[in-house]
Amino acid sequence: MVKYIYFRMFTQVSLQRNLVGYVMKINNYLRFCFWTLMSSTGLVLIGTILLVCVYSLPIDRIDVNVRNSAKYFQEYGAYPQLHPWLSSQLDLHTDGIMLLEAADHTGKNAFEKSMNAYRGGIDSCSPDLTLVLHYQKGVEYTKVLEYSRYWHGFLLFVKPALSLFTYEKVLLINGIAQVVLCLIICWLMYRKKIKGFIAPFLITYGMLMPDAMATCLQFSTCYYLYSFAILFLLVVPEFVREKYIVLIFFHIGIFTAYFDFFTFPLVTLGLPAILVVVMKKEKVEILEIVKIGIGWLLGYSFMWFSKWLVATVFTEKNVIKDAIASAIERTSNFSTAGTVHFSAGKSIADNFLVFFYSPCSLIFACYVSILLGMILQKINVISIDMWKRMLPYALLSLLPIVWYAVVVNHSCIHVFFTNRLCSISIMALMFAMVDLNRLLNAKLRKPLE
Question: Contact, 434 vs 368, CB < 8 A?
Answer without folding.
Answer: no
